[in-house]
Amino acid sequence: MAEEQGRKWDRCLADSAVKLATGLGVGIVFSVLFFKRRTWPVVFGLGVGLGMGYSNCQQDFRSPYLLHGHMVKVSKSHTS
Questions:
Q1: Nearest-10 Cα torsion for 40, 43, 48, 5
Q2: pLDDT tens, residue by residue, 13-70
Q3: Can you state the percent helix, strand and coil of the chain, rounding each to 5?
């Protein structure tokens, strides 16, 4: 049980970091290209990234019985 919680926290933090970085990058690009280097597109992008990360973490922690499957190959034994 504790091991699964650790995995969920790891996935949550990694996913949130990726979404924050993506939001920051998109905000910077929009700020430079379209909005004369204003700061609000950067803040908006960070907020969207943070919100998406939080939503995904909330969904992951609310589904306690969801098991992440692994592909298992079953070998057939020939019995004669």
A1: -170
A2: 999 999 999 999 999 998 998 888 888 888 999 999 999 998 988 888 887 665 666 6
A3: 70, 0, 30
| Type of residue numbered 42 | V
CB 45 within 8 A of CB 26: yes
First to last CA, the chain: 42
Separation CA 53–CA 39 (nearest Å): 21
pTM: 0.67
Nearest Cα to 42, choosing from 52, 29, 53?
29
Q: Tokens for 39?
A: 């700061």
Distances from the Cα of 78 to the Cα of 63, 73, 74, 75, angstroms: 40, 16, 13, 10
